[in-house]
Automatic annotation (TrEMBL):
The UvrD-like helicase ATP-binding domain, residue ranges: 10-291
GO biological process annotation, one example: recombinational repair
Gene3D superfamilies per UniProt: 1.10.10.160, P-loop containing nucleotide triphosphate hydrolases, PCRA, domain 4
Organism the protein comes from: Prosthecomicrobium pneumaticum
Organismal lineage: Bacteria, Pseudomonadati, Pseudomonadota, Alphaproteobacteria, Hyphomicrobiales
Ranges of residues in domain UvrD-like helicase C-terminal: 292-561
Function comment: Has both ATPase and helicase activities. Unwinds DNA duplexes with 3' to 5' polarity with respect to the bound strand and initiates unwinding most effectively when a single-stranded region is present. Involved in the post-incision events of nucleotide excision repair and methyl-directed mismatch repair.
Biased composition range(s): Polar residues: 675-687
Protein name per UniProt: DNA 3'-5' helicase
One Pfam family recorded for the sequence: UvrD-helicase
Residue spans crossing the bilayer: none
Binding site for ATP: 31-38
Length: 760
């Protein structure tokens, strides 16, 4: 008698079911978007548990993000009808790597409580190594070394594995030696950088066969989602673990490989069949997610890539009413945000939930226009995979600079920027300033200025602080006459803040620089710096949209694996998408990766995909006409509706729209819309609403500061015997306001402020 079949199997097609039930031996599922790869993995885990082939702790399951891991855990619970406890090995490569490393830290020369360095520390440490070797730091910058070392780590290479001659261009062939020294320093500090997490795992497994054998014993089944985005180190790690029982199931889609820039290798898909001979390779061809229009648009687009394994996809979503993919244009990014906002409100009126809508951008700076618009509309939104635009670190830092300039009494802002970028005003110096400010009940900027006239703060920090205070004064004065956007640029430039990110070699640094530019751009709509800051204060005050029905805003990269009823894809313009950087750095390969990103974007949609491009983008106060993305020409006419847009600002028409043919979107003529039209002038004067009155502000002008600080009187007289925390006992030799010149018994004559002195 056959036992009743579990319900979860009945909800699979035959190929999916094969992938779930082939529990023993290697399995590779290679299939397009929306074909149920993730569903297969989830069901496979449920199946292993339900049939008692493994305990939860015996299953190693790797997902791409922590969020995906949480979701998978939740789904498995739903499938087997009870919550799953003890699936402690479900997570990302890194989270699992850390866990393993902490358990065996001693075996690789670390203590279990090792720290994981952030990029900042990593660079600083490399700098030290470079200096210690008496190399010219300018000629051989640390961030270049970091790229080299990260590259090796992504490939699973320890210093002694690096092939001879590689990295020879760096420091006259000393790249590998520096790598080795850097690793030694890490050990001394009991620290790891991100790349080490897997690399040290690899070393552990190779050098300690017993440990590896333990894990072979433990992990009866291994599963990997988004396999196409693994790098070599991750692949080697998997292979070592999987070679025990060989029950490894990887699912992926070569067309969705979008992390090549971080070292991912699609070749891992091909290697799998070689390294695991006899692997069952399963292809899934039925897409369950999207309508036939969406699927056709995505498939047609991706067919323009040369390097792909190739596959067919079909859907049985035969809804004759289903809308085609639409392509619409707008005048600029603000109008794009306005139009998409309207569209969202329309859909909402027709009963669609905001949770089922997403805006997928190529670059995070694009989010700003949407966030501003949605706040105006009162439309709840959430930003996935990163903070909201104005909450980003670089934006908060920049805003803090602006705040101190507009309002020197803004202590929180001052605290934030006083040593960002690092200028040698450390904790000790800051504490002195804060303490003095508190005692005197004056703002930190004033306190700093007062201390500068004394020797309380160490000479090096004093020089840096005096530079900063002088600059703040200069910017404050310039605010009276200069255009606020230019001032903002000047501040970011002169403070060294922009340069800090230019020097940063982490993968997100270029994005941060773009965000800073977008910040300055967004200020153009406001009358003045204070008016702009007022707007920001209101924006920041908003609660997050947790738990409520809300539109999602995220980058295409973080949309991987997700799905929504309606997907908005703004900014399909040459240079932005495909992104210029990808084209410049990786040529054809870069273009193909961008196209895969477009494929990922379109295939997130179940019912509706709406693509947009703006005819103009304003960069540094100048209108620049844009060229529609080449990807638009690669969409199949039969499945696309091109929406003729009538502007709400004077009825311009975007050139080329509706002219089907080779250059339907007139990429050929980039100057089509470069003339200023009455349209945009009106748009501009419409903006902003009533102008907020400029805030009255304390201007940080030197004369004024000095006037203030000399205004107060000291409680001491010449000849008084006093005690100072740092310099010890001494006699007051002269008094000027609250500054005392003291002949210290040991430290000699020094100028100090009276608040740090007590009567002896
Ligand atoms: P991606 O490549 O985008 O990660 P995927 O291949 O992982 O996609 P899933 O997210 O697993 O695809 O599935 C896409 C959608 O199709 C989900 O909503 C899933 O529930 C549904 N689905 C998958 N298989 C089936 C099936 N056999 N019957 C009904 N719905 C299914
Ligand atoms: Mg998936």
């Amino acid at each position: 008698v056959r036992a009743a079949e579990p319900g979860y199997l009945a909800r699979l097609n035959p190929e999916q079911r094969l992938a779930v039930e082939t529990t023993e031996g290697p399995v590779l599922v290679l299939a397009g978007a929306g074909t149920g790869k993730t569903r297969v993995l989830t069901t496979r885990i449920a199946h292993l548990l339900a049939t008692q082939k493994a305990w939860p702790s015996q299953i190693l399951a790797v997902t791409f993000t922590n969020k995906a891991a949480r979701e998978m855990r939740h789904r498995i619970g739903e499938l087997i009808g009870q919550s799953v406890e003890g699936m402690s090995w479900l997570g990302t490569f890194h989270s699992i790597g850390v866990r393993i490393l902490r358990r065996h830290a001693e075996l690789v020369g670390l203590k279990p409580n090792f720290t994981i360095l952030d990029t900042d520390d990593q660079i600083r440490l490399m700098k030290q190594v470079i200096q210690a070797e008496n190399l010219d730091e300018k000629r051989w910058p640390a961030r270049q070394l970091a790229i080299l070392i990260d590259g090796w780590k992504n490939r699973g290479l320890t210093p002694k594995d690096v092939p001879p001659g590689e990295g020879g261009a760096f420091a006259n062939g000393r790249g590998v030696a520096l790598y080795a020294l850097y690793q030694e320093r890490l050990k001394v500090l009991n620290a790891c950088d991100f790349g080490d997490l897997l690399l040290e795992n690899l070393r552990l497994f190779r050098e300690q066969p017993d440990v590896l054998r333990d894990y072979h014993e433990r992990f009866r089944y291994i599963l990997v989602d988004e396999y196409q985005d693994t790098n070599v180190a991750q692949y080697l790690w998997l292979r070592l673990l999987a070679q025990g029982r060989k029950n490894v199931c990887c699912v992926g889609d070569d067309d969705q490989s979008i992390y090549g820039w971080r070292g991912a290798e699609v070749d891992n898909i091909l290697r799998f069949e070689k390294d695991f001979p006899g692997a069952t390779v399963i292809r899934l061809e039925r897409n369950y997610r999207s309508t036939s229009h969406i699927l056709a648009a995505a498939s047609h687009l991706i067919a323009h890539n040369e390097s792909r394994l190739g596959k067919t996809l079909f859907t049985e979503h035969a809804d004759p009413e289903a809308p085609k993919v639409t392509v619409a244009s707008s005048w600029d990014q603000d109008e794009e945000a306005r139009a998409i906002g309207e569209e969202i409100e329309q859909l909402q009126k027709r009963g669609q939930k905001l949770d089922e809508m997403a805006i997928l951008v190529r670059a995070s700076f694009q989010m700003r226009a949407f966030e501003d618009r949605f706040i105006t509309l009162g439309l709840p939104y959430r930003v996935i995979g990163g903070p909201r635009f104005y909450e980003r670190q670089e934006i908060r830092d920049a805003l803090a600079y602006f705040r101190v300039v507009v309002q020197p009494a803004d202590d929180l802002a001052f605290e934030r920027i006083v040593n960002v970028p690092k200028r040698g005003i450390g904790e000790t110096s800051f504490k002195l300033i804060a303490e003095h400010g508190r005692r005197r009940q004056i703002p930190l900027t004033l306190a700093a200025d007062e201390l500068l006239q004394t020797e309380e703060i160490k000479a090096k920090a004093r020089t840096a602080l005096s530079g900063l205070v002088a600059a703040l004064g200069r910017w404050s004065a310039a605010a009276e006459t200069m255009k606020h956007t230019e001032l903002a640029e000047m501040i970011l430039e002169e403070s060294g803040y922009t340069e800090m990110w230019q020097q940063d070699r982490s993968a997100d640094a270029p994005g941060r620089l773009e965000n800073l530019k977008e910040l300055v751009r967004s200020m153009e709509e406001f009358e003045s710096l204070p008016a702009f800051l007022e707007h920001i204060a209101l924006v920041m005050d908003r609660d997050g949209a947790e738990g409520t029905d809300a539109v999602s805003i995220m980058t295409l990269h973080s949309a991987k694996g997700l799905e929504f009823e309606t997907v908005f894809l703004p900014g399909w313009e040459e240079g932005l998408f495909p992104h210029q950087r990808a084209l410049d750095e990786s040529g054809r390969a870069g273009l193909e990766e961008e196209r895969r990103l477009a494929y990922v974007g379109i295939t997130r949609a179940k019912k509706r995909a709406l693509i947009w491009f703006a005819s103009n983008r304003r960069i540094h106060g100048l209108w620049q006409s844009t060229v529609p993305s080449r990807f638009l020409d690669e969409l199949p006419e039969a499945h696309v509706d091109v929406v003729e847009q009538t502007s709400s600002y004077g009825g311009y028409n975007v050139g080329g729209i509706g002219n089907y043919g080779a250059s339907r979107f007139d990429r050929a003529d980039p100057f089509q819309n470069s003339y200023s039209t009455p349209g945009w002038q009106r748009a501009q004067s419409n903006r902003g609403g009533p102008k907020p009155a400029p805030r009255s502000s304390v201007r940080l002008i030197e004369g004024e500061l000095i006037a203030k600080s000399t205004g107060s009187r000291s409680a001491y007289s010449v000849g008084d015997r006093v005690f100072h925390d740092k310099f010890g006992y001494g006699d007051v030799a002269a008094i000027e306001g609250n500054k005392l010149t003291i002949d210290f018994d040991k430290a000699g004559q020094k100028k100090v402020v009276d608040s740090f002195v007590t009567a002896a």
